[in-house]
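re: that chain from earlier
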Amino acid sequence: MSEINFFDRMGILLFWGSDSTLLDHLALRLTAPLAWVPFFLTLLYIVLHNHSNKRERLVCLAAVCVTLALSAGVCNLIVKPLVCRVRPCNVPELREMFHVVKGYAENNYSFFSSHSANYTALATFFILLVRHKVMTAVMVCLALINMWTRLYLGQHYLSDICVGMLWGIVSGYIGWRVYKKYSHQEREITEFAPTGFLLPDINLAAVVFVSTLFLVMLL
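^ sequence. v structure.
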C-alpha cells in the first residue's frame, strides 16, 4: 500500500468494504447493470413519449448512443489497455488487508472506471436534456451510487472514479450537443418543465429509481 499515492490510499481506507452484510448485498446488487434495467426502460419511455415524431426520437436515441460510445469506448478500448492498471481487489497486498465481498473481483484493468464514466455520461446527458430538478437529483444519485459500489467492492481507486466522472461529463455534454444540433422539435415551455418534458414522466423516473433501491434491499 506504500506505493499507492495519498489520494488513492485515503479512498481505499474510507470506502473499501465494511463488516455490514446489508452494504455488501447492496453494493453487489447495485453495481450490476441488470438491477437498473427498469430505470433504463423508463428513460427510454421518456425519450419516446416526449418527442413528437419518429425522426426526433431517433435523433435523441442516437445522441444517447454517441454519449455511451464515447464514455465506454475511450475507456475500455483505448485508456485501459494503454495504462494497464491492476484493480485494487487483485493486488495481493491489498486483498489481505481489506474486505473482498464474496470474492467479487473483475479481471480487466482499473484506470479509469467505465462504470463511473458511463453513469456520469448518462446522467449529464439527461440532466441537460430534461433540465428539471427532480431529474437532476435522480441522475446525480444514480451516478454517485454506482461510483460508491465500485469503491466499496475494491474494483477501483478513487482516482479511477474521479477521472471516469470527468470523462463522463465530457461525453454527456458532447452527446447533448449532438442532440441539440440535429433536433428541430419545438417544445412548449412551462414553469414546471422548461424544456417541455412532461412532469408526470419526470416523476415516474423518480418513482422507478426509488422503487429499484427498495427492491434491491428487500430481495
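The first helix runs from residue 6 to 15.
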